């Protein structure tokens, strides 16, 4: 019990950084756990508390506002995070007895609050507990509030999804966004085979299943910390979602070619490309951020890749030296990330609808400049992990309107048979609730 109290306090400090200081959840969690030398089960509990509380913020705040004399926004920041974290346990974690979550919240309020706050926390949580089964959420007749509060998504996001898709689709999507995604990894075929990797993982005590679409994909369970695994240190695999793996397959690089990855950090796709090229040829990986390129360097070393050349470069600026030179160009554009909310729930709170306009401008600019690097007969792949048509189809269509030297190329030869029906207007889109992958958009263009 003592170690769980400690875990809750660590989770609270991480949540404070995310919710009050604007830290990214994955980075805040990594920092918060860096010096944690407790048990694996507590590490897993902290991760669950942090991601769960961040994920369900709108729903939790809505319930707190219903039963508290003070609105969430007027409650002391430490105390509102204690309330959110405790309510998350009460509402969503079967394994935690509600009274234990309340008692622990009261203890934390004594440490992080002023006089009287522990009584306030106790009162709010016990009132909610008494009423938990009778909470009435907004009616589906008011679909935006219904989806937003029931599934904890910002109104602007659900509003555009209802408009772009439909209500049923959006509800399934929101539901899937709240599921815990599997840890999918790509086997590094430069160093091992899938069967050998499965054998090793099982020896390391992990439960492994084959991926849904691709041969090099495995889903791993019971994994408290991958960085500690020998198989990870030896570079036998890299965490990567299957939809993200599809991008490199659709690029279809050949051994010996010159590939340019203009928005390449942290290197997930470019290292996959190197793998598909059997580590033969040359890949120039660029990014505007130096610190992110360090991650590409570390990754290529761990995976044993030596055909990647890393360059700090702004993709909006034309590089005269590379015009018409590349066999393949990948534009894996910076985007809103609405397709990866399962993995990064804070996207729901950090992204604003008004960000889209600037992102679309950037995407169009990067695509236009990068197209100059494709040699005649070469290919360009444009991808995002966004679900928004403005960042996807519309960017590509806008590009093609002013570029008659490119056409949409058939991607069906490069994707698994079960996905072929999913191609619409020549583009592939994946969705968490349909494919159980991240949401991706992928287009393959041919230079004439
Ligand atoms: C979707 S991520 C790329 C992920 C990467 N392809 C992978 O698979 O690991 C987009 C990247 O674009 C970079 N970026 C943003 N603006 C850029 C620019 N103007 N020029 C080059 N890179 C940029 C970001 O730093 C980010 O690393």
TrEMBL record:
Keywords: Cytoplasm, Methyltransferase, RNA-binding, rRNA processing, S-adenosyl-L-methionine, Transcription, Transcription antitermination, Transcription regulation, Transferase. InterPro entries: MeTrfase_RsmB-F_NOP2_cat, MeTrfase_RsmB-F_NOP2_dom, Nop2p, NusB-like_sf, NusB_fam, NusB_RsmB_TIM44, RCMT, rRNA_ssu_MeTfrase_B. GO terms for biological process: DNA-templated transcription termination; transcription antitermination. The keyword Methyltransferase applies. The active site is at residue 385. Residues 173-448 form the SAM-dependent MTase RsmB/NOP-type domain. Its main location: cytoplasm. This is 16S rRNA (cytosine(967)-C(5))-methyltransferase. It comes from Koleobacter methoxysyntrophicus. The lineage of its organism: Bacteria, Bacillati, Bacillota, Clostridia, Koleobacterales.
